[in-house]
């Protein structure tokens, strides 16, 4: 059985949701770590995230479930319609309560980010730390940052997004050795761009009474004449989080990619591009409100520094680790946000890694690489399923023959057939992993979760250590 001296030091590059979740879990596991973030401060960017049964059990274990519920708005319906006010269908999420004991919540991305950040001592998150060099050896990992600082540890985690510097350095080494798969050498593809933001608090009673209901719906609107989709989510704090997706054709996609390489070093564009998209889409009708409201009304209620335009890359990389270096979240799989799986899959990655790091018998490179192999083997299935589901949903809401057929089937297929045969709602909520090194939580609902191999492995080690301490 391993001792405290056998436990590794983990260097986490990237303070996004995945990196913060890993840090919060390692903090609970009493494992040494430091998080490095290239930005100088936290920016309140992004729209909303739907979080439900897939994470609520873990939040209970971490004792942050009540804090989360205080910032999350329960939601049981999504209204999908067209900009001529035709309602295509209503998606009902009430089954999750019966199946799992938990409902779904809408939470602003910055609010969830701040909740996770509070779980980590401030001195363990270092801002303004852009990684410049990485050395991965048999004995350990060393990183150098642009401020000429150096750090060393036993494990390096790249949680630094779709254009991960850690992945780039790792792939350069593997490519030089001739071991990097061809598909991992190809650029990140995308077929959509997205404008996101969140308004300042709004008087729902006066402007949007539909959102006064504590468990009211969110709205997804499809344009009948242009390649756009826009979604609006109410939050518990009275904000409206919104996103406008532009579904590109191949020619537009190529042009947009060339623009990105000229104007930016990552997937986020400058304020000029965001403002241009705001101007192009101001007239889009909203299917709610006391007057004939438009997206322009929401833009006017949104502070400029909370509006951003991003590209929606889609790819699952084949290579997730090498030596003592491993990737999580967008660094190894970038999903279209249509399926609302991106943040959840990143945090599930962090959980699986935390379980396996906790269960390490020692900090040798052999033991660490074996754990990484188990990590990818466990996560690749759920990630690929989420990737395919998100891609399929993005095709449904995009303007095209596949989307038209899918919407027709959704509107006219009997609900029980759609839920049990086409969507299989029970299958969608099976992946509810928990931490094996934290207290167990009672399984709720009528559908038990699938067994997480990493969670079971960590649970066995946790019980062994508990017995050893009590003897």
From TrEMBL:
Pfam families in alphabetical order: FAD_binding_3 (PF01494)
Domain of life: Eukaryota
Keywords: FAD, Flavoprotein, Oxidoreductase
Family that this chain belongs to: Belongs to the paxM FAD-dependent monooxygenase family.
Domain FAD-binding: 9-216, 303-379
Alphabetized InterPro entries for the sequence: FAD-bd, FAD/NAD-bd_sf, FAD_mOase_fung
Lineage summary: Eukaryota, Fungi, Fungi incertae sedis, Mucoromycota, Mortierellomycotina
Keyword Flavoprotein listed: yes
Record's keyword annotation contains Oxidoreductase: yes
Protein name as annotated: FAD/NAD(P)-binding domain-containing protein
One MF annotation (Gene Ontology) recorded for this entry: FAD binding
């Amino acid at each position: 059985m391993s001792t405290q001296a056998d436990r590794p030091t983990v260097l986490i590059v990237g303070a996004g949701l995945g990196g913060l979740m890993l840090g919060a879990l390692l903090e609970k596991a009493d494992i040494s770590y430091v998080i490095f973030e290239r930005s100088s401060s936290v920016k309140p960017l992004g729209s909303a995230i739907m979080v439900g049964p897939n994470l609520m059990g873990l939040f209970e274990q971490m004792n942050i479930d009540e804090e989360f519920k205080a910032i999350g708005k329960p939601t049981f319906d999504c209204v999908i319609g067209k900009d001529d006010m035709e309602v295509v269908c209503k998606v009902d999420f009430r089954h999750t309560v019966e199946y799992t004991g938990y409902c779904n919540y809408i939470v602003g991305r910055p609010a969830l980010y701040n909740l996770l950040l509070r779980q980590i001592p401030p001195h363990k998150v270092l801002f303004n730390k852009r990684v410049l060099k990485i050395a991965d050896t048999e004995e350990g990992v060393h990183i150098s940052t642009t401020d000429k600082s150096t750090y060393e540890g036993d494990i390096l985690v790249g949680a630094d997004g779709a254009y991960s510097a850690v992945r780039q350095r790792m792939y350069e080494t593997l490519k030089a050795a001739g071991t990097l798969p061809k598909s991992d050498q190809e650029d990140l593809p995308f077929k959509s761009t997205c404008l996101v933001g969140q308004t300042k608090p709004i008087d729902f009673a006066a402007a949007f009474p539909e959102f006064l209901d504590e468990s009211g719906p969110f709205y997804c609107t499809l344009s009948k004449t242009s390649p756009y989709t826009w979604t609006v989510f109410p939050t518990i704090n009275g904000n409206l989080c919104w996103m406008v997706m532009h579904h590109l054709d191949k020619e537009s996609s190529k042009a947009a990619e060339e623009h990105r390489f000229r104007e930016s070093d990552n997937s986020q564009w400058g304020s000029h591009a965001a403002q241009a998209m705001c101007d192009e889409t101001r007239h889009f009708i909203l299917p709610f409100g006391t007057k004939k409201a438009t997206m322009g009304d929401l833009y006017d209620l949104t502070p400029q520094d909370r509006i951003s335009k991003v590209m929606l890359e889609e790819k699952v990389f084949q290579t997730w680790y090498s030596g003592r270096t491993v990737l999580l979240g967008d660094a190894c799989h970038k999903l279209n946000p249509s399926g609302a799986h991106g943040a959840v899959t990143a945090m599930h990655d962090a959980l699986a890694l935390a379980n396996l790091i906790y269960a390490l018998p020692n900090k040798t490179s052999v033991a660490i690489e074996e754990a990484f192999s188990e990590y990818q083997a466990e996560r690749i299935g759920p990630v690929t399923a989420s990737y395919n589901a998100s891609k399929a949903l993005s095709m449904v809401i995009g303007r095209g023959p596949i989307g038209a057929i899918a919407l027709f089937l959704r509107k006219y297929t009997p609900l029980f057939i759609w839920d049990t045969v086409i969507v299989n709602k029970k299958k969608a909520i099976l992946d509810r992993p928990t931490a094996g090194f934290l207290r167990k939580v009672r399984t709720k609902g009528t559908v038990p979760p699938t067994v997480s191999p990493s969670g079971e492995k960590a649970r066995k080690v946790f019980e062994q250590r508990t017995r050893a301490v009590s003897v």
